[in-house]
Design brief:
Blueprint (H helix, E strand, L loop, with lengths): L2 E7 L3 H11 L4 E8 L6 H15 L6 E3 L13 H4 L21 H11 L4 E5 L4 H9 L7 E7 L14 H5 L1 H8 L5 E4 L1 H4 L3 E2 L1 H8 L3 H21 L4 E2 L1 H10 L4 E6 L1 E3 L10 E3 L11 E7 L1 H13 L3
Parallel strand pairs: 1-2, 1-4, 2-3, 4-5, 5-6, 6-12
Antiparallel strand pairs: 7-8, 9-12, 10-11
Bound molecules: beta-D-ribofuranose (BDR) and calcium ion.
Calcium ion (CA) binds next to α1.
Length: about 300
Amino acid sequence: MTTTVLLDCDPGHDDAIALLLALASPEIELLGITTVAGNQTLEKTTANALKILEFAGRTEIPVAAGSARPLVREPFVAAYVHGESGMDGPDLPSPRTAPVPEHAVDFLAARLLGSDRPVTLVPTGPLTNIALLLIRYPEIAGRIERIVLMGGAIAEGNVTPAAEFNIWADPEAAARVFTSGIDVTMIGLDVTHKALFRPADSERLAATGRVGKLVSELFAFYQQFHSQQYGWDGSPVHDAVAVAHVVRPGLVQTAHRGVVVDCGGELSRGRTYVDLWGRAGWEPNAHVGVDIDAQGFVDFLVERLASLG
Ligand code: BDR
Ligand code: CA
């Protein structure tokens, strides 16, 4: 039984690995990729998505570029994590292919309306495109089976003490998604930070082929931030956890809870308040990742990426 998926991303090292995991997973039928500004500018995240598809020999999968900036907030890129290109490390050639001419939001709507099967959206960047989709095509909500997004945190953030990057970057968009009534799963830092991909994993993957080598080169750059900032001997592969949750249910344990996105000022901007213990009595609106089989996830990731050769 395959799951039909649209991946909305901002590659980004972990977005690139998430995309490769989707390509390596026969359980997923990938209808297309949409890009958004986040880890880097839209131009760069779009080029990076094309580069990965070209490297993997999967250029039949269409890429549509979307929003170049958040709904309300000022654009902010995470070059301090992902470098100037947004995917620093490997020396990949400039893309020869191009995105389709449609805007990501129109592309998503067309694919959702045209699909005879329910579609799962997997957003792994700021939620700008998804919010715009729900605003521009309100009838589309009924066509989305569920949204499995990487973003948020029950506990601490990673861009500020309060907030995770994807939600902080465009909180108004995230709030629109969490209040949409659609079945939402939040894969946040509480689970992604538990499942570190370590140098030994990178080494064993590098020996499996050219995709493994590419991922090890991505990891070598990405790890620098996690070792300098956190002192960790490994890196969370945030976005790949969202894809893994779709492909291999059970690796991540979730709890159905009420989540509210803070669209307020500097200190609390982008915080995802989760009514974990039901003290606030909020109606559940998201399946929130609360635990992960960390070794199971890393082994699954390595095994699937290795299968690409
Ligand atoms: C998220 O922010 C980005 O830097 C990563 O690609 C991931 O989607 C983690 O907070
Ligand atoms: Ca991302």
